[in-house]
Design brief:
The chain has one domain. Helices cover 78% and strands 0% of the residues. The protein contains 9 helices and no strands.
Length: 200
Amino acid sequence: MTQRILSLLFAIIGWFSVITQYYLMVKNSQISFPETTVRFFSYFTILTNLIVAIYFTLQTFNGLPKTKKPGTLTAITIYILIVGLVYQIILRSTWNPTGLQRLIDELLHTIIPALVLIYWCLYENKNHLTYRQIPSWAIYPLLYLFCILIRGYFSDFYPYPFVNVVDLGYLKVLISCFWILVLFVVLSMLFIRIGKSLSR
């Protein structure tokens, strides 16, 4: 029962954050509604928080077999922690939101990653985590990178400054992405190692 209550609470927080961010983006946009919507879903932050919200919604209603498979929660936890870490290290200093936008910003990049980490500590089936799972976990971020670079080539819109090919060129963008990939692999190995230690 406690797990279901937490899942429901985290799902509400997740949906509130994503929906409110969409409202704020549409409200303040200077471009067309369709393009605003496409750009909204171009952010790794949004897509990952959406995955988190969907995951906790499914968990609230007993989930699907795939969501209960060992490693699924770990992958989601790593994704959302990368959202938080990249924001805190690289992006936080690039803008200073106020009011409701600041609240949503903190929810998406700080509070939700912390909540997912707590949930992982409590409920992941850690003794079934293996290093062989890492390549499958990497599919989502690699596919995301491929999609934004392809779309950016045609639209000149890149959701983050460190993937802006127009300003940086492909070499610097690929170097930035390489280090983020390194962060992903290190986090994945760390979670598996910690998980095995905790499950003993």
